[in-house]
Amino acid sequence: MDRRAFLGTLAGGLLAAPLVGEAQSARTVPRIGVLGEETSTESNLAAFRQGLRELGYAEGQNIVIEYRYAHGVIARFPKLVAELIGLSVDVLVVGGTAAAQSAKAVTTTVPIVFVLPGDPVGSGLVASLARPSGNATGTSTVLTELTRKHLELLQAVVPRLSRLAVLYNPGGASGRLALNEAREAGRAMAVELEVVEVRQPNELASALSALRARRTGALLAIADPVFGDELAQLARLAVHDRIPAIYVTRGFAEAGGLIAYGPSFRDNYRRAATYVDKILKGAKPADLPVEQPTKFELVINLKTAKALGVTIPPSLVQRADQVIE
Question: Is pTM beyond 0.90 here?
Fold first, then answer.
C-alpha cells in the first residue's frame, strides 16, 4: 500500500471510529419511562433525578428519561404506559396504585418500580413485601394506615368534631381501603362520615359545593390522582367554605391547605432511583423487597388557621416539620 492510500485509509478509520462509538453509546444508554399522576409532582421528580445523580447517572448523558402525565385522569394510564413501552424503556417508574396496576396490566416483562402505592399487597401489585414476585417492586406509602392519624389531627384542631366530610374516588383500590379505615376510625371516635365521591378533577368544585349545606366540621380528602393537580383549588375552596381540611402531601399545606401529614413523597422518589440502578445492573424486581416509608412530614399552615378562625394546639405546632406563617 502506498503512502497516499495508507493515509486515506487511516483518515477514514479515524473519522468512522467516533461514529461507531456514538452508535454503540446510543444503543447502550438506559431509557427510563416515568408515568406521573400529575404535573405537580415536579418536585418529586427532581428528587428522583437527584437520587440518580447520586448513583452516577446524568439525564441526557448516560441515561434517558421519558415522561408522561395523566393529569388526574386514571383512564389515561394504559395508553401512556403503552406509549412508554413503545419507546423500548428498560424500566418503568410509576406513581401510585392506579398507575402501577395499569402498568402491570399492560406488561409482565418490563420491570416496574412503583413509588406511592398505599397497600401494594392488598391492591395486588406484589405477592408480599419481602418477596414481591412478578415484575414490580418499589416503595410504599402505607396511606391506608394514615387515615386514623388524619382524624386525630383534625379532632385536635376541632375538639367537638362530630361530622367529617370525606372526599374519595371510588375508582381507586387504595381509596376504598382508606375509606374503610376512615369508617372504622370514625366509629371508634364517634365521628359521623359524610362521603362525597369525586371521580374526575372537574368534579371537585361541585363536590365541595354539595357539602356546604351539610354542616360538616372538617374535611379529609383521601389521597388519589384525581386531587393531584387540584391541591390549590381544594385548599382555596375549603378556606372559602371555612372547613378545616387535611391531605396527605405537603404540597396541600404549601398551596394554602390547613394541615398536611404523610410520608415524604420526595424521599420515596429519591429512593426509587436505587431500585432503578439495581435493575439496570441486572437485579430482578421479584428479588427486591418493597420498602416502607421511613420519613413522615407534618406541615401546618398557620395563615390558613387564622383565616379559618381555628386554633392549632401549641403542642401540635411544636411537632410540625414545617410551619407556614
Answer: no
